[in-house]
Description:
The chain has about 475 residues and is mostly helical. It has 2 domains: about 30-225, MFS general substrate transporter like domains (Growth Hormone, Chain: A), CATH 1.20.1250; about 285-485, Growth Hormone, Chain: A (Up-down Bundle). The protein has 22 helices and no strands. The chain has helices at about 15-20, 30-40, 45-50, 55-60, 65-70, 70-95, 95-115, 120-135, 135-150, 160-185, 190-195, 195-210, 215-225, 235-250, 265-280, 285-290, 295-325, 330-350, 355-375, 385-410, 415-445, 450-470. Helix 6 packs antiparallel against helix 7 (about 95-115) and helix 7 runs antiparallel to helix 8 (about 120-135). The longest helix has 30 residues, at about 295-325. The radius of gyration is 22 Å and the shape is globular.
Amino acid sequence: MSAPEAPGAPGRTGAAAGRTAGPSPDPGFGARLMTPLLLGSLLNPINSTMIATALVAIGQDFRVGAADTAWLISAMYLASAVGQPSLGRLADRIGPRRVFAAGAVAVVAAGLIGALAPTFTLLIVSRVVLGVGTAAAYPAAMAMLRAESRRVGRPAPRAVFGRISLAALASAAVGPTLGGLLAATWGWRAVFAVNVPLALLALAGALAWLPPDRETRRTARATDGADPAGGSLDPLGIALFAAALTCAMFFLLRLDAPRWPLLAPTAVLTAVLVWWQLRHPEPFLDLRMLARNRALVLTYLRHGLAYLVIYCVLYGYSQWLEQAHGLASFHAGLIMLPMSGAAAVCSLAGARTKGIRAPLTVAAGFLVVGSAVLLLLHGSSPVAVLLVAGALFGIPQGLASTGNQAAVYAQAPADGVGAAAGLQRTAQYLGAISASSLIGLLYGQRATDSGLHAIALAGGVLAVLLLALTLADRSLRTGPTRTRT
């Protein structure tokens, strides 16, 4: 690992300087750059939740059960988990603008396939394509911000990360409501079709306002002394990673009925992946860099643990409100609104802090407190307590999102921010799938008070572990530093 990069690194080219001429409250990270990045970044989270209120109608039309329609959720998670680091690698190598634009085109295609799908199988294909297409935006955005940071000679402001987190959190929060409105007004196919205009807007903004990749490569050569487009894509490494991760996630999907035979191919594929990455001159996963960059590995671990607890509440708490507390789905959604609101507010608050350790410590602390409150809930708990319980988990959701996002940006190698950001999202998706499996294991056929308390106990233990990891991470005490390689 080389020395930290100087915050005032040169790199403003004439063409780039001209592009930002004129008044701007934040030169270099203004509205033209951020608008397409924010629009692209909301496509993945909104599609993750928008489908929820259309599943029943889809099942009725295709005459399939809940176990089958659940694949519409899992298929996108699997595709996104594999796609995020893979497309991040592409963004680092061939340029973030190209990857961002290609992802938007894939989302348009997925929207059309889903809106016109004559069979349920084709609908699942649409969700896979949608997962891959929407997975391009976040790592490409992080790589683009890194390129812009090179150009203007200073790090991206924390407020920029706050906006990206807010776009993701807010879109995920409104997803179920928007999906229900679209399904009730124009039918469930509108949930797929709405991606077409949204992706076209993101594509138009990218083509009009994002700087060309040749400009970002030229700036990279001037500041870092290397061309990020000159390396190998390592397609075999990407394929091995995708295969190993897919096997692992299929195992995690059913912890209540473990598919033990999947562990053997997972172990074999992982061993082959490690062997290949260690011998490849420019590997897809730089395992040697990760071994040296302990801070980045700990950030991935923290992010995955935090979202494992958060998703347990997001999915498990709402189910308990309906089945144990007797609320209608609409009223359960209203009870969950403070969680979404607190997450949005705290993502902005976290973006305004200068350090990283403090917000992450507060996030872990609130996960501990929230888990303790869940242990006290029962089927007749007053509404006010239910609202507070949800809000307690929204606070760490917002703080962990912006804090770990800023940590990855600072800790990742200068020429690998896209892939590093993708791996961060992969850790989050692993947390989501593990959470859904844990809920099924602890709830069984129906959500009960005892099941909720078991989830709260498990969440509390994980939150204490997360708090200990955060407090013990020395790299967060002085603030992480950017590394070149």
